[in-house]
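Is nicotinamide-adenine-dinucleotide placement plausible here? Inputs below.
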Amino acid sequence: MRSFVHTASPSRVLFGAGTVRQVAAEADRLGASRVLLLSSPPLEKYAARLRDVLGGLLVAEFDGAAMHTPVEVTERALDVVRDHRVDCLVAIGGGSTTGLAKALAVRTDLPQVIVPTTYAGSEVTPVLGETEDGRKVTRSSPAILPETVVYDVDLTLGLPATMSITSGVNALAHAVEALYSPDADPVTDAMALEAVAAIARSLPAVHDDPSDAEARAELLKAAWLAGMCLGAVGMGLHHKLCHTLGGTFGLPHAETHTVVLPHAMAYNAPAAADAMERIARALGVPDAPTGVFDLVRRVGGPTSLRDLGMAEGDLDRAAELAASQPYPNPRELSRDGIADLLRDAWEGRRPT
Ligand code: NAD
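Reply from A.M.:
I modeled the complex. Tokens:
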């Protein structure tokens, strides 16, 4: 018998095409009358759509969301919240804009409506990672979890192909690590396996034709399922490594996940044989770590940390940091083992 504890996230999710039109009704449902719209400059086209949709509910805008949620950006946005007596946050964008909404919500308890435009999955987790003085610190709280998520497939059609691929692999990483998490339960297993299979099908289709709405919908649904896994169970070595590489060495989030995932899987494989077998079946390949590496290569994703700009001289320190704090992981963490993993990822070797 398998004992387990499952905690479901109480968020409301709308999924479809053209659903952005429902954002005003969703804000209204949360009792909003003074909305702050959060975005970033590359998303101006979508912010304009929301401006129209929100009409008189909109009282202020802030388009300065930045990667890894710097605290100084949050403080500037907090001034806008106070100056305009905002009573609801609407955020459009990827994990960075969602992170800003969460950082404001945890400080003000304001309700959030998130409109995701990438596959990061942050919109369905109660987790916030913030950076201050070059360190990324993560916390979790019910006030961080967005009340409402509006997935609109149309808004993902323009996500550049490279970002679509790396963000899709970021989602795959949530599902993979959920399957060997000590907190895994039958619900997260089912969501994670469906996400892995859907990503394996849709990622090549999106790569071949980024305007394929059906493939985009399948990938976005998988990103939601994978995000639910991320929100429900603890992650392991892969996420900790990417957190260190992003927070301390400034490497880009989704790209780093894409390079590291096959290597973190290869490291954990000897201690997570059952999960790896299930992942391989869902991917439709004989071996999970090499299957993920080959999928990334097939869709033209990055395969080496060197190409992402990581200095060779930083590898030792990254291994030291990643091994310095104990956390649950299928295979025991050794500094030398992690150093070898990072070396393989830096050089872009296919795992064996
Ligand atoms: P991002 O939000 O930084 O977006 C990357 C770039 O793509 C940005 O310039 C953005 O403006 C642009 N962009 C986004 N959507 C677009 C679209 N549809 N069309 C054109 N351009 C678009 O990247 P991300 O990978 O989505 O998020 C990364 C951040 O999210 C990191 O800070 C990471 O730590 C955080 N994150 C947090 C969680 C969590 O649960 N707390 C989960 C995943 C990611």
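Short version: The mean pLDDT is 96.
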